[in-house]
Design a protein that fits this description.
This protein has about 270 residues and is of the alpha/beta class. Helix content is about 40%, strand content about 20%.
């Protein structure tokens, strides 16, 4: 066990579709389930110091975070289709089953986790009461170029090794808002990384029509000047989701307020 913001974190694990998924469970109260971004893990995100989850736990939320398939301490196979947003959403729903969640819960996710949460909500809307979407990724018109870059990255890893891919990534400018955030190596193994990249290349957010049918309150948290997480995606989601609030951060200090913003959002009475 470890502690986050003075709250004990309980570790759990379960098997689903040939993989063992590891999750971290803290606090008591209504359940909020969080999915992280691609190539990192819950421990990596904690090391980056971007998101402060203490306010949610202090406000009486139960927070469950998990390492996505093949990320962090979770296992996974080198199968491209295991890493599409829709398939990762199936993992999220399986975790809800494992936790015995019978009431609607809050779905939260960042980047790849945002895509995971949205696909889960579209597939099983009655299982979710609210959505918290952090740094929505490229989608729809901006997705094609990003998908091609992912396919090329997978080819580089297979042809030249992961170090060549990381060296190329290091030459790309980082968004100013997170330029001083510590960088970590990818948590998936070199054997699985090409499949993850190709799975993400096969992915997109649900269609605007499907998103518009989600009648759940949503909070969208974005940051500026990041081509991998363009504001156009966040703004389009805010337009199509019937009950959405959008907040855009331009400094790292403002990103550190996201935990408080989420806690305040979850404390609002249901409409």
């Amino acid at each position: 066990m470890r502690a986050v913001g003075g709250h004990t974190v309980r570790e759990g694990r379960f098997w689903h579709r040939r993989a063992e998924l590891v999750y971290y469970d803290a606090g008591e109260g209504p359940l909020a389930l969080y999915a992280h971004g691609g190539f990192v893990s819950q421990a990596t995100e904690d090391g980056m110091g971007l998101f402060d989850w203490g306010p949610l736990l202090d406000a009486g939320q139960r927070l469950v975070r998990y390492d996505a398939r093949a990320h962090g301490r979770s296992t996974g196979d080198a199968v491209d289709t295991d890493y599409t947003y829709a398939t990762l959403a199936d993992d999220l729903l399986a975790l809800l089953d494992h936790l015995g969640a019978t009431e609607p819960v809050t779905a939260m996710g960042a980047s790849m986790g945002c895509g995971t949460a949205l696909h889960a909500a579209v597939h099983a809307p009655d299982r979710f009461s609210r959505l918290v979407l952090l740094i929505p990724p490229t989608a729809w018109r901006t997705r094609q170029a990003h998908a091609q870059a992912n396919r090329e990255s997978a080819d580089i890893i297979e042809r030249e090794g992961v170090d060549a891919w990381l060296a190329a990534k290091a030459q790309q400018p980082r968004p100013a808002v997170v330029a001083d955030v510590p960088e970590f190596p990818p948590t998936p193994t070199e054997r699985v990384l090409p499949s993850i990249l190709r799975g993400l290349a096969l992915s997109d957010l649900p269609s605007p029509t499907a998103i518009a049918a989600l009648s759940r309150p949503a909070l969208i948290l974005a940051w500026a000047d990041d081509p991998g997480h363009p504001l156009s995606t966040a703004e389009t989601l805010a337009h199509w989701l019937p009950q959405a609030d959008l907040h855009v951060s331009r400094t790292r200090a403002d990103i550190r307020t996201w935990g408080e913003r989420i806690a305040e959002f979850l404390a609002r009475p249901r409409p």
